Amino acid sequence: MKPILEINNLKHSYENDKILFENLNLEIDSGEIISILGPSGCGKTTLLRIIAGLETQTSGVIKINNQIISDANHFLPPEKRKIGLVVQERALFPHLSVLNNVTFGIHNQKNKQEIASDYLELFRVQSLRNKYPHEISGGEQQRVALARAMAPEPNILLLDEPFNALDGSLKNELHNETKKIFKERQATVLIVSHDTKEANYFADRSVLFMNNNIIITKNNSN
Predict the structure, then answer these.
(1) Is 56 exposed, middle or buried (0-12, 13-18, 19+ CB in 10 A)?
(2) Are 28 and 34 in contact (CB under 8 A)?
(3) How many domains does the chain have?
(4) Exposure check for the chain: N or C terminus, fewer CB within 10 A?
(5) What are phi and psi of 115, to 5 degrees?
(6) How far is it, in rounded angstroms, from Cα 176 to Cα 23?
(7) Does any domain span residue 130?
(8) Cβ atoms of 24 and 44 closer than 8 Å
(9) Residue 62 and residue 11: Cα distance in Å, rounded?
């Protein structure tokens, strides 16, 4: 079976030729949860942005489902990559209700209301469907952001420090619920976290970014 995501010899450098990372190779199987750990500034968030199509690598190849989405000769626009992205700022559309935030990216026009309601129910925010982002708490906003990212059933879900702004008890509660949902829905997830405990809790396998741009993968015990 081919991995759902393949990254081959990826390199990213700045205009001043400073290399952020190079020779990066990674494969992720369908339904696998991978965490990325490493020091600040090593390129974890940039890697997610490159996979999502928000930035372009200097060189290297990225494939999804064995299709090249980005290399020297190809660039598939972000909206066509079928990738979900959740960041710590949540970035919900302020002018849309909770329900309309979740239906926004669903392409199945016939059943989009039912699909959105299903994910709102999963993340326990169904009762907030008619409220707007400014009317709900930070934890509720993050639940909605996760529901919105998962509702279109993306090939890969990218999470960039998604729980960083939450306090301890709320964070633990959302950890437990979110991991259960990921496993139930067999989601393929790549999560960036500065918190080793959090990353290891979620991940089947961790990717360690080192200062010399070498990555080491290890299987987690959970």
Answers:
(1) exposed
(2) yes
(3) 1
(4) N
(5) -65, -45
(6) 35
(7) yes
(8) no
(9) 11
Determine the structural domain holding residue 97 and report its residue range: 93-153
Q: Tell me: the pLDDT tens digits for 24-43?
A: 899 999 999 999 888 778 88
More confident: 11 or 207? 11
Joined tokens for residue 18: 């400073």
Q: What is the pLDDT of residues 138-151, one digit of tens each?
A: 889 999 999 999 99
Instruction: State the pTM of this model.
Output: 0.90
Residue 107 lies in a domain: yes
Note the pLDDT of residue 185. 93
Whether residue 145 is contained in a domain is answered as yes
CB–CB of 138/88 below 8 Å?
no
How many Cα atoms occupy the beta-carbon half-sphere of 213 within 13 Å?
Answer: 15
The DSSP output letter for 165 is T
DSSP state of 167: -
- For helices 168-184 and 138-150, what crossing angle results, to 10°? 10
Residue 73 inside a domain? The answer is no
Q: Taking the CA of residue 122 as centre, how many other CA atoms within 13 Å lie in the half-sphere pointing to its CB?
A: 24
**DSSP per-residue letters across 111-136:** THHHHHHHHHHHTT-GGGTTS-GGGS
pLDDT band at residue 158 using 50, 70 and 90 as cut-offs: very high
CA-to-CA distance for 84 and 104, rounded, in angstroms? 12
- Parallel/antiparallel/unpaired status of strands 33-37 and 67-70: unpaired
75 in Cβ contact with 83 (< 8 Å): no
Whole-number Å distance between alpha carbons of 210 and 136: 39
